[in-house]
Amino acid sequence: MTRVACHKFDVLVVGAGPAGMAAAACSGQCGVRVGLVDDNFSPGGQIWRSESAGRPAPEAAGWLERLRAARVEPLCGVRVFDAPDPGVLLAETADDLCELQYDKLILATGARERFLPFPGWTLPNVMGAGGFQALVKNGLPIRGKRVVVAGTGPLLLAVASHLRKHGAELAMVSEQASWGSLARFGVALTAQPAKMVQALQLKRDLAGVRFATGSWPVAAEGNNVLERVTISRRGQSETVACHYLACGFHLVPNTELASLVGCQIESAFVRVDDFQRTSVPEVFCAGEPTGIGGVELALVEGQIAGLVSGGRIAEARNLFAQRKKLRHFAAALDDAFQLRPELRDLPSAETTVCRCEDVPYSRLQAHPTWRAAKLQTRCGMGPCQGRVCGPATQFLFDWTPDSVRPPIFPARVESLAALASSPEPEQPAVTGGH
Amino acid sequence: MPSMTLTVNGVAVEVETGTTVAVAAILAGQPCRLSVGGAPRGPLCGMGICFECRMTINGKAHCRSCQILCEPGMDVRTDD
Amino acid sequence: MSAAAYDVAIVGAGIVGAACAQECARRGMRVILVDRDAIGVGATAAGMGHIVVMDDSEAQFALTCYSRRLWQELRSELPDDVEYEQCGTIWVAADDEEMAEVGRKQHYYAARNVATEVLDAQVLNTLEPNLRSGMKGGLLVSEDGVLYPPCAARFCAQRAQELGAKFRLGDSVQLIGQGQVVLSDGSEIRAEFVVNAAGASAPALTPGLDIKKRKGHLVITDRYPGFVRHQLVELGYLKSAHSVSSDSVAFNVQPRRTGQVLIGSSRQYGAEHREVDHGILAQMLKRAQAYMPGLARMSTVRTWTGFRAATPDKLPVIGPSTFDKSVWLATGHEGLGITTSLGTARLLVDQMTGMQPEIPIEPYLPSRVGKEHVHA
Lengths: 434, 80, 376
Fold this sequence. Notes:
The structure holds three protein chains of three kinds.
Chain A: E1 4-14, H1 18-28, E2 34-38, H2 58-69, E3 73-76, E4 79-85, E5 88-92, E6 97-107, E7 111-113, E8 126-127, H3 129-137, E9 146-152, H4 155-165, E10 169-175, H5 179-189, H6 193-205, E11 211-213, E12 215-221, E13 228-233, E14 236-241, E15 244-249, E16 251-253, H7 256-260, E17 265-266, E18 269-270, E19 283-285, H8 295-309, H9 313-317, H10 320-336, E20 352-354, E21 359-360, H11 361-364, H12 370-377, H13 389-397, E22 411-412, H14 413-417
Parallel strand pairs in A: 1-2, 1-6, 2-3, 6-19, 8-15, 9-10, 9-15, 10-11
Antiparallel strand pairs in A: 4-5, 5-6, 7-16, 12-13, 13-14, 17-18, 20-21
Helix pairs in contact in A: 1-2, 1-8, 3-4, 5-10, 8-10
Chain B: E1 3-8, E2 11-16, H1 21-27, E3 33-34, E4 40-41, E5 54-57, E6 60-64, E7 75-77
Parallel strand pairs in B: 1-7
Antiparallel strand pairs in B: 1-2, 3-4, 5-6, 5-7
Chain C: E1 6-11, H1 15-26, E2 31-35, H2 43-46, E3 50-51, H3 58-74, E4 89-93, H4 96-111, E5 117-120, H5 121-127, E6 137-141, E7 145-146, H6 149-162, E8 166-169, E9 173-177, E10 180-183, E11 188-196, H7 202-205, E12 212-223, E13 231-234, E14 248-255, E15 260-269, H8 278-291, E16 299-310, E17 317-320, E18 327-331, H9 337-353
Parallel strand pairs in C: 1-2, 1-11, 2-8, 4-13, 11-18
Antiparallel strand pairs in C: 3-7, 4-6, 5-6, 9-10, 10-11, 12-15, 12-16, 13-14, 14-15, 17-18
Helix pairs in contact in C: 1-6, 1-9, 3-9
C-alpha cells in the first residue's frame, strides 16, 4: 500500500538544475524552510549531471555547499504529477506518494531537447545530443566509438567536446544553422567575455573535428541498430558510418507544471515579471521555462526568484542588470539557431512521428488540429504525453499544444486515488452507460 | 571502480556503480523495448521524459530505465 | 422549401450526428454535417465506447438491443482503427443481493431473446482473475463490445461523405429553425430539415429542451495486456435509489485493443467546468481498486472529462421538434450515445421519410419532454 509522505515548506522549488539550486540556496539563506524536489536521482539537472555516483559535477559543488549551508531539504527521485489545490503538489517516488505543501512555489523545471523526425531516427543508438551525453555520464563507455553529433544549438559543441574527452571518435558535428548566422552569434558573444572564453575553449577541445554548418541528418540506417547516418549539405549527401548519432534540435521549455498551476504562458514560455513572478500569486519561475537562455541566465533568474521569495527585494534588484545582459545573449541564441524550413521536409510518409504509438507522418498530414490528429491517430497519446511528438508536430504542422491535465507525468492509479480525503460516496450508481 | 552484476533478459551484465539500467541494456546489446509496431527501440532523451527506455525491472512494468541506477542482482526484462 | 440546398443539415458531428448523416445519405438525401470543431471530438471522444444492452427501462432495452444489432451488422465493414472488440460485458455481483439481481437480469434478457450466461464465483474468477476474490458471481452478456469512438464517428462521417454528404466544420452555429442554420459568421445554410445533434449543447439551439450536462471522468492506463478481458460493471447500483441529482461513482473498466485499461465512471450534475475534479476522480479510482486491487500499482497515462447530455427519464430525444416542423432532435443520449447512435439514426430517418420504424418510437419522441420554447 502507498505511504503518503507529507512535507510542508515555506518555499518549494521544483527542479534541481542550476536555476532551482540557485533559487533554493538564495531562498534558504533568507531563513525560510525550503524544499528542493527533482525527478532525477541526484541534483544538478541535465547540464550538471554527475559523472560518477555520489560525486557531484564540479560546477554544481559550490551550489550544493550553499544548499547545505542554507539547510535546504533536497528531495531527489521525486516526480511531481499533479497540483490538486493551491499550495499543494503531489509527487511520486519509486514506491510512495508525497504531498508537498508550500506557501511559495518556484518552478525551475528546465527544458528538454527538441527532436525532429527523419527516416531512421527511431533506431536504437540514435539519441538526443544531451540524451547521449547523459547516458555517457551514467556509465556508457564510448572510447573508440564513432559518433556523429547533429542537429542545432550550442549544446552540440558542448556535447561533442565532452564525448571527445571520453575517448569517442567524432566523425562529424553537423549543425543546421548556416555559417552566417553562427558568425553573427559569435559577434554577439564578444559582448560577453565569459561566454567568449567558453567558446574558445570548446574550439580548442574540438580542434581537428569536422564541423559542418548548414547541414543536417536526412537518414539513419542499420539492421536493428544504427550503422550509418546520411548528412545533407548544400544539396549533396554524404553517408558516414558510426556507432551513435547524438542528435537534438535545440531546446523546448518544460512548462507543463506551470500550465497546470495556472500560470500564463506566452509564446510557449512562462510569463514572468522583473521579480520572476508568474501570473499566479506566490508562484515564481526561473530558468529555461521563461526563455531558453543557458546556465548563466538560469542561475541569475534562480537567484532573483529565491531572494524575492525570501523577502530580499533589494538584493534581487542588484541582479537585474546582469540578467538583462544575459537575456541579450538568449535573444542572440534564439536568432542564431532558428530552425530552417527545409527541416519540415525531413520525414518521409512512413517516418514515425509519434514514437509511443508508432504513428507515421502520412497519417498526420490531413488533420487540421493537434487534438483532431491525437484522437484519430493516437499521436501524442502514449506515456510521454506528447513531450516528444508535440514540439515536432508544432514545427511540422503549426499545430498548437493541447491543454494540460493531471497527471502531467504517468502516475499510479493509487496515487490519483489517494486524493479522496472525502468519504466514499454513499450510493454508487450505475445507470445506463459509463 | 566497484562493479556489480545484474541480468538483462537472463544474461548477466557487469556494470560499474552509478550506471543506469538503460546503459546496462545497451551494454547487453539489447533494445530496451519493442515499439507498438514491433520495432526495436533504445533510449532517446536520457532524462526520463520520452519513455523509450522503459523496461520491466524486478517484475515491475514500464520503468524508465534511464532514471534508475543498477543494483546487484537486478532482473531486467525488455519485454515491456 | 425548394430553395433549400440540402434536404438535411445536421448540427453536431459527434457519433450521433455522424450516424444520422450516414443514414440520411444512405437514403439518398442531400446532407450537410455542421460542427464548430472537428468530427467526434466532443462527448464522443470523451466516452468509453461501449456497445451494450442496458435494461433500465423497456425503451432503453429496446433501443440498445436494436442498436447493438446494427453495430454487429456493420462489424465486417469497420476499419481497424475503430477497434471494435466483442469482448462481452460482465455485470459483477459482490454479494448475495447482487447475485439475486443477476438472476433477475438474466431472466429479463432471456425473455427478450438476448442470450446471457450466469457465472458463479469460480467461473468469474477464471474469466477475470484480477477481480478481488470473494465476488459472488456475475452475468456475462457475451455479445456486448467496445470500440474507439472518435474513429467510429469518423467512419460514419466518411461513409456519409462517400455518399455525397458535405461537411462544414470549424464554424459554430448561432441559430437553427425555419429550415435554416445560421453560423457565427452570419452565413446561412438552408435545408428542409435541420437536425439538432449537438449533445449537451443542444438546449442552446433548442431552448427549453430539458437536457442537462452530466459530467464524467475517465482514466486510461499504460499497456497491461490481459489484465482484464471483458468489460466489467458493478451491480452495486442496486443499493441506491437511482439518483438523478447527486454525484456518484461506479466501477466500470474496459480492456482496450491496445492492452490499455480504461477506468470509469463518474456522474456529476451542475459541474460546468472541464477541469478534472480531484475528489470525484479519486473516489472513482478507489472504487475501481476495491474491485480490482491490481489496478493500484498500474500506471495511468491520461485522465479526461466529458459532458453527457442527460434527460430526466434517461432516454434520448429522437424526432420532430414540437414547435418548428423543420427542426428535428437527436440528442439526450446520456452515457449511451455510442451504442445508440446507429439506432437513433435509423429511427430519426424512418420518421422523416414516413417509414415504419423497427421498434416503437413513442418513448423517444420530443413531445414527451414538451415545453421547448420558440426562438426569440
